[in-house]
Amino acid sequence: MTPTSASIDVKAPPARGGAASGARVGDSPIRPDGTPKVQGRFAFASDLEADGMLWGRTLRSPHPYARVRSIDVGPALAIAGVSCVITADDVPGASTYGLISPDQPVFARGVVRYMGEPVAALAADHPDTARRALAAIVVDYEPLDPLVDPARATSTETPPIHPDGNVIRHIRVEHGDTAATGDVVVEGVYEVGTQDQAFLGPESGLAVPDGEGGVDLWVATQWLHEDRDQVAACLGLPHDQVRLHLGGVGGAFGGREDLSMQVHACLLALNSGHPVKMSYLRDESFVGHVHRHPARMRYRHHATAAGDLVKVEADVLLDGGAYASSSSAVVSNAARFACGPYRVPNALVDATVVRTNNPPCGAMRGFGAVQVCFGHESQMDKLAARLGMDPVELRLRNALATGDVLPTGQRLTGAAPVAECIRAAVAHPLPPPTGDGWLERPGGAGRTADASRVRRGVGVAAGFKNVMYSEGFEDDSEARVRLTGTGVASVTCAAAEVGQGFVTIASQIARTVLGCDAVVEPADTVGIDSAGSSSASRQTWMSGGAVLRAARLVADQVRSALAGRLGVTPESLTLTDDGRIVAAVAGVGVDELDMTVAEAAGGQVFESTAVHRHRRTYPLDERGQGDADVSFVFAAHRAVVDVDSDLGLVRVVQVATGQDVGRVLNPTQVIGQIEGGIAQGVGLAVMEEMVIEDGLVRNPSFTDYLIPTVADTPEVLATCIEEPEPEAPFGAKGAGEPPTISSTAAIAAAIRAATGVDVTRVPVRPWDLI
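Below the sequence we write its predicted structure tokens.
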């Protein structure tokens, strides 16, 4: 039998949203996917299966840079159970892909540019067969000297490793009088290591040929329509023959914005005529997706003797790895936010991102703002020390506010509660002194820290970032709301639920407008246009805005229909903010009218589709000036650490925060985002780093790449600053990225305070403190 999409047993919950019974905007309903995840019943993409399914694997380069002289797939095809083996010669459409620039090969042809680059792929009847067949493929490599130093990549004398050159993008921001100087000048050089998204669910998907030349792909991703467009181009198929469906996503954090196994799985399915499942092992995942850009930053801050910033100079260099991914947007963020959330009348910023033979880098939570936040906040502490000022007072003195002008020339028109965030963070009570228990000391159960040698430190940092896409990038989201005859609203939107809770928010919005239960249908590319990526803290604003528009259109349809039945004008009926229809004026025969929109529908079906767009943004000009952003989110963190400087061990005791959220739509989910983001900030501060030597990844496992466990995560105290954003739905901004941006910098500041060591690099390693 020819496999079809109907033969799939996806084992997923019947509707990814479920019903949000009684839950409106401002409530905290139980997540519809929460209970099945806790009970182990939720189907992640790695759980998918289908009749006649084969197992796909990708052969990857062991070299960071090498010529590929030849590939012999014959020995693999000779193994019983191997259905097909494919290389660059078998790609029928575009041979390259890319999120912004199509510069990355589906399979290497002639040269490999990083350790882990795909060379071939195969499908077999069993995972063990696929593993043995992969080892049987013979590739003749000629290793080359890799370019691994990003500083060398900026030189015109360094040979290019890619036809598009080594420099991906350079941005220069010139603001005010670039020759201005201050009474006090401090400078420093700072580094940020390579952080991995470290999601627990590896890259996984299931491709099923439809028997008519097309394919369905169930996959864990952040952007279904963008994946579809890139996959279709590589397959040489029209979009309607490539249908993507969202599989259960086990974390993302930016690492699923780029393609991983999507094209390979679809090619194998079309070549074999069978469903093909691909699920990366952990070591493959470490080279199978992009990472946070490592950074080298040189800063010089000028200030008056009273503590007013005069000028900031910054030189930021990001290592983009072998291919561009979203590096051009990340470096733009680094340039735009390099001065921090402060009034800076004069600025000179150079930001560059380059190609090297290190693994590719791209999107990760904070998207360029995390790296520069560590730089500018380290500088603010250094400046405070030079001036003899309290670090908090220095920040409050220079804090941005609505109406101020950024170094890009853009004026802040929305809410900008920077000072409020700082005050809220430091207003939280400090933790009690370190206890006598071993688990309360640095080193924990290792029982290594002498209590008399433990020192406590407190540090503060503030940061900010854009929400939504910037620099003129087209950004919209489409959603459809259908009020069924049973009085339940159905929401269709292609927004990827990656754990952030959009399915809960979407149902809350629909219920608020229509006064009825709502379910969110599974996301795919079949019946709805794009919702954009689940990134840039944008889905609540953009897709939430689309759901809100569609629901209001449905409510208006119901009002008109009800008015027709009552023989009155629609204007005589009012739609309230809580999903009810009431009489607008007395004397029209409906004085006592008061019912929900769903009740007013009278069993009829109403449906509307809406697109939500934000106001226009503009690319930066040659001086780095322009209204590049829609809106901004701000946060401040205060960290408390205990340090055993004899051993270089650090325990993060507490992180307190004040965060600008616009308006809280779901309190529990906002706190969850804050706690999760801070945990990743803790990781970058004291433990998370991909060790890459000469282009080779030395720690591609959770044994050697350490992420915070429950024993490492600190107490989190959070205050949400609610100043509704005028253009946002219900006034709500995104909440996912700010917790990560300045938490790392605050922890580094606390370590400085505890040890007196000038911490200039994160993650802070034990030998940095000894």
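The chain is about 25% helix and 25% strand.
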